[in-house]
User: Fold this.
Amino acid sequence: MLQDTRATTTVASRATIAHSGLRLEPGIPICQTDLPLDWYQEELKPYAEEYLALPDRTPETVLPWLDSYARPALSHFGDSLLLLAHFYMGGEIVKLVERYGGSVSDSYALALQAVRRPEKKVIVESAVHFMAEAIAILANDDQEVWITNPKAGCTMELLAKDHLVMPIADQLLERYGDELVVIAYMNTSGRLKALAGRTGGAVCTSSNAHLVLEWARAQGKKILFVPDQHLGRNTARRIGMDDSRLLTLPDPQTYAGGYALDDGTIAGGVRALDQAEMILWASHCSVHTVFRPEMVHWWRDRGWRVLVHPESTLEVVLAADGSGSTNYLWNEVMSAPRGAKLAIGTEGHFVRNARAEGRKRGVEVAHLADIPELGRGAAGCGCATMSRNDPPHLAGMLDLLRRGEAPDLNRVLAGDSVDEITGARDRLSPEERRELIRHAKAALERMIEITETDRQH
Assistant:
C-alpha cells in the first residue's frame, strides 16, 4: 500500500544525516566506470589522463591524487566555496564531496542551497544539469553555479525537452486557456519550470509531489504534469484522484516531430482529453522502470521489507511496502531496527551507499533487481548519466576554478540547454534569461511555500 512519505527532516539535518555515515572503506574498489578519454572536454583531459594512469581505483590511490587538486582550491576559496552532490552519485563522489565539507541530499534540498547559503559564492555541483540549473534560478546575482560535467543529463528529461513539450503545451493552452495549470517535476529544464510559472503552476519533487498536486487540485483547474508519467500516476492514486480521469499523452519518442491533439493521436480522443483532470506527459526514468512486481514478491516471500521510489510503475508501488523520495528511503535505512532486511528499488549508487551504512547498524540492504533466479544480475553502478561526473571532472573543475581558467561551458545559467551527446549549448539572451527566471523562480518559490507551510502544521 502507499504510505505517507513526507520528509520529516530539515535541510540542515538532511545534510547531517548524509554526512554522518558515508565513508570510503579501504581496499574496496570505487564504483565508477572509467569514461573514454574523448568524453572529456579539452580542458579536463589532462586530469583524466592522470586519473586513468592510476594503478587502481581504491581510496588509498584516488584520495591522495584528488587531494592534490581539491585542497589548494579549498584553501583558495575558503568559506565561499560549496560542493554539492545528489544521493544518486556514486560513493566516490558522495564521499569526496563530504570529505571536502560539501553537502549531499535530494533535489529539493539541493535547489535551496544557494538561496539559503548566501555566503557561498562559488557553487560546484556533481549531479545532473537540471539540478544545477534549479540552483542557478534561485541564486543571488553574486553567486556562480558550476557543474563538473555539463553533459550529465537525465533520460527522463531527455524525453521532455522544451522543443518536444512546448508545441503540445501551446495546443493545450489554446484549448483550455487559464483553466490549465502546469506542474513541472524538478527533472525538467528551467524552460519548462518557466512554463509552470507562466500558468500559475509550480515545481514539485518526489518528496512533495502529493502536496503540490493537492494544491493544484484545490485551484479547480486541469493539470498538465510533466515529465514523469509514473510519478504523476502514483501521486494521483495517493491523493485519491480517479484513475479514469488521468490521460497519458502519446510517447514522445514516437512523435518526436510533434503532433496534433485530435482523435487520431489521443487515446479516447478529444473527449477523453476534455474530461481528464490530469494530463500526463509520457516520459519515464530508465532506472526505475526496470523494476517489476515479481521482484517485489520475490523479496517479500523471503521476509524482506520492500521500499521503492515513486518513479517506478504503479504496479510496483502498489506491491511494495512503502514508496518515497530518496530522502525517505535513506531515512528508512537510518531508522530501521537491527536485524531488519530492506530491499530497495532505486538507483544503484544509492543502494550501494545505503548497504554500507546499513551494515554498520546491523541492517541488511539489497537492490530490488538483484535476483539471479529471475535472470537479473548485479544492479551495476547506477544511473549512467549521473555517473558522468567522475573524480577527474571534480578535480579538474576545482583546479581550473582556482586558476581562473574554468571552461565557460561548465558555468550554469538559467535557461541553458545542453545537448547530452555533443555538449553543444544553447544560451538565452540576457533579456530572455531574466524573463525565464521570473517565471521559473515563481514556480520554484510556490513549491517551497507549499512544502514549508505543510511542515509547519
In short: Residues 1-32 have pLDDT under 50 and may be disordered. The chain has three domains: 11-153+385-426, 157-285+448-456, 288-374. The first strand starts at residue 81 and ends at 86. The domain at 11-153+385-426 is CATH 3.40.50.10800 (Rossmann fold).
